[in-house]
Amino acid sequence: MPSLPSNINSSIDAEQDYHDLGERYSQAPVPKRAKDTVIHRASLEDITGIPELMNWVSDGDIVILEMGGMINREIELQIAVSKLQKFIENEIKGTVFGLGHNRLLLLPPDYGAKKADINHR
């Protein structure tokens, strides 16, 4: 479930003095500047990946979550979505959006939709 690409091209020799990590991991999920937001692309195959997703969102990162591998396992899918919604929407006040049939967009509190106060109409 990591958000790093799986095709790492080069190898590092044990006694190599310099490692150009920017070249080796050109799309590493780290901010380029302080206070930048990281956008993770992840695929959730089972519920064991939920804690890492929660960590990313609580750190202020955005997650685009592919759940296609769980679509046919309805109970596990419902548990996963319920846990994510409860944590993100109720506990940290973020937002969970459905994107199509098998994706979710997980937003930390700073990026969620604002609910309008009906008393100010």
What does this structure look like?
This protein is of the alpha+beta class and 121 residues long. The protein is 26% helix and 17% strand. The protein has 3 helices and 4 strands; from the N terminus they run H-E-H-E-H-E-E. The chain has a 4-stranded mixed β-sheet with strand order 1-2-4-3. The longest helix has 18 residues, at 74-91. Mean pLDDT is 80; it is low at 117-121.
Strand percent estimate: 15-25%
Question: What's the helix count?
Answer: 3
Morphology call = globular
Helix-strand topology string: HEHEHEE
If you compute it from the alpha carbons, what radius of gyration comes out, rounded to the nearest whole angstrom? 18 Å
Count the strands? 4
Structural class: alpha+beta
| Terminal CA distance | 44 Å
Q: Give the helix level as a range of percent.
A: 25-40%
Unreliable stretches (pLDDT < 50, length at least 5) are: 117-121
Largest sheet descriptor: 4 strands, mixed
What is the strand arrangement across the widest sheet? 1-2-4-3
Mean pLDDT: 80
